[in-house]
Structures are given as C-alpha cells and as structure tokens.
Amino acid sequence: MSDLVTGEAVALELRAAKLPSRALAILIDLVVAWVVYLAISIGLLSATGSLDDAAQAAVAVALFLFVLVGVPIAVETLSHGRSLGKLACGLRVVRDDGGPIRFRHALVRGAMGVVEILASFGVVACIASLVSARGRRIGDVFAGTLVVRERVPVAHLPFIPPPPPWLVGRFSGLDLSGVPDSLWLAVRQYLTRMTQLDPQVGWSLAERLAGDLAECTGVAVPSDVPPAAYLAAVVNERQARDARRAFGGSESGGTYPVAGFGVQGSGVQESGVQGFAVPEPAGSGGAESAGWSGPAAGAAAPAVGEPVRPSYRPAQEQRPDAGAGGGTGRSGFAPPA
User: Is 237 helix (H, G, I), strand (E, B) or coil?
Assistant: First the structure.
C-alpha cells in the first residue's frame, strides 16, 4: 500500500503498480501507437511523394511526435490517467495527493517518456521503477504522479460472532463518536481471531481493549459482563446504528438484521444464532461454561415462525488467572445474576 495524504490531511491507502503490470500497459500502448504510426506513414508516403527529401523528413518527424508523444499526452489528459494499456491492466495515473492528473502532469510524463522509454527502449524506465519504492519512473518523479492499481481483489471479511442475546441493545446509550477507527479495527481483529488465541493471552487482550473502549466512551465496563462479551455487544451496537443510518430508519423503530439478530426498536428478536463464547482456559467445561448453551437437548422443535430462544443455565464467572479453589475457572458469556 502507498500512503498518500490529500490536501485535507486524509490518508489514502492506494496500491502502487509494480514493474510487470506497468511494463505490460506500456507495451500495449506502444503496439497500438506504432500500428497507427505505420498506417499513417504509409498514407503520407504516397501523398508526399512529390516533395523533396527535407520536406519528407520534416513530415516524418512531425508525425512521429504527434502519434507517439502528442496523442498519448492527450489521451492521458482527457481520460484522467487511463490510457488504453492502463485501462486493460487496471491501472491509472494519479497525483501524489491521490487526485486526477491534468495536462501539465501528462505533458511532463510524455516528454520524459521520449527519453526513458522511446530513446532507451525502456531500459531507463525499468531501472528507475525497480529502484523506486513505489515503482515510479523518472517522468512520475518530475510530474509528481504515481501509477496505482484500480482493480484490487476484494478479500472476504471474517465473520464477527454475535454477542449473547441478553446484551443486545444494552449499550444503546453509549456515545461511540469518540472511538477511533484504529481501535474499532483492533476490536474487530480480536473478535474474529479470539478462538485462535491462547486463553490467558486472549483474556488479557480483551480486558485491555475493553478498557480502551470504555475510556473512549466515558462509561466503565459493567462488572457483570465479560470483556469479550462487552466488545461484541458494543460492536453489534455500532453495526445496528450503521444499519439504521444506511436504511433510513430511526432510533426507535424498524427491523434490521444485524450480526444474526433483528433489532426492532429497543427489543430483540432472536434468530436462532448459536451463542458466542470467548476462548476458554485449559480444563474448562466447553459449552457448559459459556452460560448460553442454545436450545436444551431433547426439547421440542419450535413451530414455524416461532423465534428460537436459547436456554440459560447458571454459570459462574471467574478470571482465567484465578487461583485454585476460587470458583469453577470458567469463562464466557454468562447472563447477569
């Protein structure tokens, strides 16, 4: 990624194009330009056959500059950095601040391209692109431009487990405007990878993230809520607010599916999501220690259209680092006493 900073001090993460894709784009542009140049040259050769050698040489130079220099500059200016080769390879020329290029940027790039691409057969441009950390050639350095990738593969976002039903909507009054994006990203990464962490490390990390989140919101973490459950509930609340804003709903009405739950007003409609538990210490009781075990075994299946409601069994909450005899050593999302 290339960190570009706009005039409004906004950091943009753009993926700079490397030498192979840029070389392929330039090769496509040169092939098209040379085909056009040869076609026009053949037509002018028959039309200027009666001219002397000096006039024919002047026409040839003018045609060379027009087709191989002037046309690429005009194309990049009018298309805002997308030539035929770059369009085929999914590339685009932008300014250092991420904005579209103008005529002066395309002019400098085209003039320098005569030396580093046409005159040296691309050797100078290749060396400069390999040396540059962002793959820029000399023309990009003088013009203040950068070639970036427009078509970037979209990664599948990991699933964020939903919080227990008894926590959904509990933190609807929190002020989340002061939480920075970096903290949201850290919480999201923890929730998606919590099952892969060591129990002790996961619990400590959840406590630290919950403390940072509580400091930003100005409200302490409730003592009856495990830190991982608190993080999941606050993230669920933010998703619910984003859904209400996106679909034009109000804070007091409307049903929006968020993280496996339908949030309707201030109430909750369970949709059969099977719990959510933090990593448990070694020797814990598995699903028995989560405090929310889903529908009881052997229970009759609910009727069609009837919401599936989890069955709760008592569970004791204790930190994983508690000493022997201090309880059951269980963790997870237990309902409040």
Answer: helix
